Amino acid sequence: MLWMAPGFGQNAAAPRTDGVVTKSSQMRIVLWLFMTLVLVSPLPGEDNPSRRPIPDPTSLASSNSLSLFVVSARPEKAGLRQLFKTALNGTDSQGGPASMGSLMSDVISRQNQQNLIMAALPLQWVRVDQPDSQGRLRTLTVLSVSGWQGMQALFYQGMLAGKVLETRRHRGEVIVLRPGWQNPEDLMVMARSQGSFVNCATPELARQTIDRLLDRPSPPGHGPLWDAYAGLCKTRDIYGAAVNRNGSLLRLISWAGRSITARIRREVGAQNFDRIVATVRVATLEAEVISDDQIDLELRFSTATPSQIDDLKMVWLTAQHELKSLDRLSQFRATPLPSGLLVNLSITGFRGDVSRFLGTLSL
User: What are phi and psi of 78, to 5 degrees?
Assistant: First the structure.
């Protein structure tokens, strides 16, 4: 699920100018990749002094943030290990341009690839949504890698794709402005600081995030977002909370649900769907990666009034129907609560998506 997240997927790297990787350039990339891996790989059993602490997710949000979602990848999680294994195995069947996965397959064994990936763990991905001074929602994502510095440098250079791009500097850190950065909806502003990769809407948001990464963490804020976040189980693979203001929940649902949200919206009726979503005051999510093909989710929605719970349940029953029609749902339960709705579901069918992941990361 981590690599499906906007900001570190289709928009993660600057576009290639010609769409072609020549054989000579591919050989240079292979050699560079091989030497980098050799130079940075720790010896078996060696303690790694370059490992960095993962930042507290709350330190990346501000007092006016409307959502805070976390994906936490830990090496001891069996479902996560299976997810990585499937992703790496999927690169064998990929054709087309040279990819990170295919180049790794050229120089190191499958088992060593898995060892290298696991050596970068734990890692954490955080998404924050907050309004700017004019009330427009702006998105920030931060990927923090605790593993050895070589993997961080490798990932960073892969994101830049070897391009010479416009930059700014802030407190000794470089802010990279990728093509199209003037459009804040595309999240084309990037920075790297303290083992964390920042992807966001504007240079100002990048500067604020660098300050938070470099300075002593401040206490969490106060209000409904922080109250909801405090009650979450932080040992889950995915967890987060959102306060529904400025259309924040609709934005998150459209981002997370992608095509399925569009299907539900058509079935319920666009205006009716938007009206029902607007009745939610606070929403929370906890999820666990069970395997490379299944994720279990628990969602809680607090509505403005008890009378709005039935409408919300109707939307979720429509979601149940749509997911079943796509053969993506193995379990579903919607439980009315005094203040809202509790939804438990198991979604399947990720294996094909995961298998294609590394094959799409063109260099």
Answer: -65, -40
